[in-house]
Design a protein that fits this description.
The complex is a heterodimer of chains A (242) and B (115).
Chain A: H1 6-13, H2 18-28, E1 32-35, H3 42-51, E2 55-60, H4 67-79, E3 82-87, H5 91-101, H6 105-109, H7 112-127, E4 132-134, E5 152-154, E6 166-168, H8 176-185
Chain B: E1 7-14, H1 22-33, E2 42-47, H2 54-62, E3 69-73, E4 79-82, H3 85-92, H4 99-108
Parallel strand pairs in B: 1-2
Antiparallel strand pairs in B: 1-3, 3-4
The chains are: A alpha/beta (242), B alpha+beta (115).
């Protein structure tokens, strides 16, 4: 259990800066970890390792990352006083996917199955062991969805019946400009792919550079039609009676 | 497990031709395949052509934007929404996740693919 009044605290933290939010969560929970993707969320590693040297950090090695991202993960491991854990997909599930559908099924079938096996599976197994986790998710990364990215939330996907998992997004209120100002001001190392027009960085086959003024998510899964609306329940596709 | 006063609702969208949406068909099939349909007390229709249908009203009340979803209604009237099959299975058991569960999780929560 969380041991505190959740909603008032969430409102309070939503007005705080990332360092203050991190300080709260790092003091509140022993059994937590920070999720690091090998991209701009390095700012959280920089901040958290100063507040709590030795802070647990995990990263998902999907097996399909850019060489630059693997090098950057090593740079981060060597630069900061952190306990970095590299997580891998379940060999059985991944083997079956590749055996049945090949190495590039996502171009044909969409990315959900591949991301499910390579990312969500290991993430889910890791989160079962934690009381709280920290992510670099920001509101400005998904302007097309109505989903909010609160600063702190009870994780609706990974909480268990008898255990609340708390998810903290200290960068929720920052935008890309804020992040890069922090990186420059504090001389934080960054993934060299950013110098080549990559903004949102994921797996190599599913990530490309974007042009000026293109949204960062246009560089991910660009071949997919994101307009699958049949299951939508929002007003736009619910017909008026009569 | 559930106490006798807890009710589980499965809300599925039906199209104007009376057929369920594709995802609802898929999840209902998995509920049967996984032997979990017995946990569902009531299947609530969210009719695309009837905004007053009980499923649409439940979706509006809880701010849910995609079907299908589950509502856990406790004896004291408190309701909890579970909007992915992975989370629903987690709610009742702690078995390992299948590839279908993981795929569904990304489908329901696209931001997970950006972690």
């Amino acid at each position: 259990m969380t041991g505190f009044e959740f909603e008032p605290l969430a409102r309070h933290l939503s007005t705080q800066e990332p360092e203050q939010i991190l300080e709260w969560v790092l003091n509140q929970y022993d059994n937590l970890a920070l999720s690091f993707s090998g991209a701009e969320d390095v700012v959280l590693v920089h901040m958290a390792s100063q507040i709590r040297p030795g802070v647990p950090v995990f990263t998902l090695d999907t097996g399909r990352l850019h060489a630059e991202t693997y090098k950057f993960i090593e740079t981060v491991r060597e630069t900061y006083p952190i306990e970095l854990e590299v997580l891998h997909p379940d060999a059985g599930q991944l083997g079956k996917l590749v055996r049945d559908k090949g190495l590039f099924s996502f171009y044909r079938d969409g990315h959900n199955e591949c991301c499910g096996i390579r990312k969500v599976g290991p993430l889910s197994r890791k989160l079962k062991t934690l009381d709280a986790w920290i992510t670099g998710q920001r509101r400005d990364q998904s302007p097309g969805t109505r989903a909010e990215v609160p600063v702190v939330q009870k994780d609706a996907v990974f909480s268990a019946p008898d255990r609340t998992l708390v998810k903290v997004n200290p960068l929720a209120n920052w935008n890309s400009e804020d992040v890069w100002a922090y990186i420059r001001l504090n001389d934080v190392p960054y993934n060299e792919l950013h110098q080549r027009g990559f903004v949102s960085i994921g797996c190599e086959p599913c990530t490309r550079a974007v042009l000026p003024n293109q949204h960062e998510r246009e560089g991910r899964w660009w071949w997919e039609d994101g307009a699958e609306k049949e299951c939508g329940l929002h007003a736009g596709n619910v017909r008026k009676a009569g | 497990m559930l106490d006798s006063k807890t009710t589980v609702l499965f809300v599925k969208k039906t199209l104007p031709d009376g057929q369920p949406c594709a995802k609802c068909r898929d999840i209902e099939g998995r509920l049967h395949k996984d032997g979990l349909m017995y946990l569902v007390d009531d299947v609530v229709p969210a009719r695309e052509d009837d905004p007053s249908s009980p499923g649409i009203r439940l979706a509006e009340r809880h701010g849910v934007e995609r079907a299908p979803f589950f509502v856990i209604r406790r004896g004291d009237g408190d309701e909890q929404v579970i909007d992915s099959y992975l989370a629903f299975k987690r709610w009742f058991s702690d078995k390992g996740s299948t590839t279908d569960d993981l795929t569904d999780a990304v489908d329901k929560h696209p931001d997970l693919a950006f972690i």
